Amino acid sequence: MAKRVTTLFIRDNSINLLVMKGEKVEKWASLPLEPGLVSQGLIVDEEQVADKVKQVFKETGAKAGKVISALSGHDSLYRVISLPELPEAVIPEAVRREAQRTIPTPLEEVYFSYQSLPSPRGESRVFLTTFPRNVVDVMVRTLRQAGVKPHIMDLAPLALCRIPDEPRAIIVNARLDHLDLIVLADRLPQVIRRLSLPTETESLEEKLPFIAEEFNRTVAFYNSSHMEKPLDSTVPVFVCGDLAEEPDTWQSVVGGAGYSVSALPSPVEPAEGFNPNEFMVNIGLALKELLPEKEEANFSLVNFNALPEAYVPPRFSMVRVLIPVVTVIGIGLIILAVILILYNRTEIATLRSEVTIAETSVIQLQLDTATLKAQVGSAKTIADALNARFITMERGRASVYLDLREIVDLANQNVFFVQVEHKGSSIIVKGAAPNVGLIYSYARDLRESPRFSRVWVARVQEDGPWSFEFSLTK
Question: Is CATH 1.20.210.10 what the domain over 164-265 is classified as, yes or no?
């Protein structure tokens, strides 16, 4: 029998509810929200939004138990981090320390979730995301006030990543107020950027130059650190949101790079009157539990529950039921034993013998405990050494990443990179530009950067377009 899943996504301007049974859409509703009730994913007026949530459940007749909800993803950070190969038991602490080291926001202000990924031998790869603590707390309070039981939580960009059955893809989710740019590679979200769109323009058409600029910036950023396998014209581009309703504008977003652009395909069975483009996040949420079982599938590998542990409903446990019963039975047996002792003195000697055996067992257990404590101490020493090792490795990687980001961010969009070679404190940058002025302007910007102590123009020559080679010293 097909599983039924209920999903809820509270956007800044609407509440979207979707109920699916298997791949079939059963119920859906989108209820508009007045401006100001929700701002950048943060519920401002809990009472009014709770009333709206109650209304949408009442109108659809959907059940409010075990609902999968989504955060907008605003002010969230995403990382694929590498750790030395570690025992499963120490990974949570290692991830917490890595988050504390690399995330600019104090951990007291955010929740974080992670998922272990398939990793090569000797390495532990982890997908890590952080999201604002106050956004989650207000969301859970509002849902509970509306009688909704949050069961699983996700972030909207990760829900969108779950929809395309492609190992590599670019997703452009453009709404009037915000833009999500997502790069999928090796079935993982490698880049997720959420940007607010200019408010001084009212139509999507007026925002297209900004969207195109950020699209090119995102592709250039990814390609600068993945030159062995860049995002070329074979990588499909999928659009959704308001942009999906304007197909005539798609090519202006991707420019002349030759990308094929299409609407983000819906994996659900079509229903009369249902517009899947308006419910893409809800569909991605439903796929957390309804991903089709296909051989050689290329759906995103990331699928974890972002609902903080403090809010996860307790599961029914047979052990909790049995403990009181066993306790009562045990007490009864003890009382019976006392009665038997009182009536049969001869049993005392036998009991004393059993006590002696038990005491011997306790002594043995104490010895075993001491041995285990010694082993735990040794394991902790090894874990500390490994932790120091991966911290050193990550500092080096972070330095290289910051160097490359500075080199890319300072470049004009007409400057193209051919090669960036990092050797300790020296960096060789080779590239091309339409004119020599852009090259020397780029060199001046690099010299003004505090990251580089010396910038030497090794070569500038005209080869069709002008080519250049810089030598940078940190």
Answer: no
